[in-house]
Design a protein that fits this description.
This protein is an alpha/beta fold. The protein contains 15 helices and eleven strands. It has two domains: 197 residues, Glycogen Phosphorylase B (Rossmann fold, 3-Layer(aba) Sandwich), CATH 3.40.50.2000; 148 residues, Rossmann fold (3-Layer(aba) Sandwich).
Length: 369
Amino acid sequence: MKIRKVVVTGAPNFIYRYQFLLKAIASHYEHLEYLPCGERFYSSPFANTIAELVYKIIYKFSLSTADRLFQKNQRAYIAKSRQAEQKIGKLKFTPDLVFQIFGMFSPFWERSDIPYAMYLDYTMALAIKNWSPWAPFKNSQEREAWLECERQTYQKAFHIFPMSNVVKSSLIEDYGVEHQKITVVGSSGNFPEPYTGEKLFGSKQILFNGSDWERKGGDLVVEAFKQVKKVIPEAKLVIIGKKVNKRGEGINNPGKIRSLSELHDLFLKSDLVVAPSYCEPFQEFLLEAMNYGVPCIVSDRDGMPEIVDQEINGMIIEQLTPEALAKNIVTLLNNPERLACMSEAARQKIKTKFNWNSIAEKIVEVLGR
């Protein structure tokens, strides 16, 4: 298949999040155009305005309920798929390929003359098994209806590029996708090129992204830090992502970091990043940390062991307890030479594997076969 013109579909925030990947892919084709989709609930402008208002109100009290009513149900999946199909049909040209970001809807529902590929971080089948708030279905009928929509979308795809082998296995086992149609490519962080500057150690500062506090193991991190302070009194914990009601000596909680330069400084001033998540598809925050040479301590859940190599560029803990996390933190903070070695290994992995240019080249090579 000769590909010259590509259209990228997906929710607007996802297209923006993966702008560096898309720019890298664009350099290989004659034309690449963004076509944000999936932002509407209904085809009627009036009904859509009302639905968006109601969704925002319910969202403040319960994200799961808002998602179940407006996002994660068969009706929403099909409606958004049809809207995407209509948008593609109104283009002034016919694309050779549609590249869909994530699987919250399909770029086509009825049309089958244009091939599409998909970039995935997770599946609903995995969410059902590993983190129920992401699968807020009222009953088995609602759940199976959504899974059937996904199954149809994945099986019709020309090729699927999951971030991890965990997702690849789910596509095969839960959705019946042929393994020849799947190529694992990984992901990268919010940077166009790998960092090449200096990284020093000795601050005793630990960095934690607590944007989704419960899922990411926020309470576990705070309890572990209390134990770390008993052994290393000068240790510091910086919690970013959002403001949380967690106070204590050595804890700094600036909340959401909107400045890339400020986040850059935090990485360079931190000796460790911790991510003892209970569910974590493929955390790009870890990739950003490794880009700046910060070793990471992570749980063994989902795709994280595919990012962090045990005792090479970080540590993987199997038992998610404050004691296990604290022990690993103390071990590394007290060994700056080991941290420096892990730092170099982390940066090397970003340079050779988890960078957008390498990922884009792999995608383009597969699509061009």
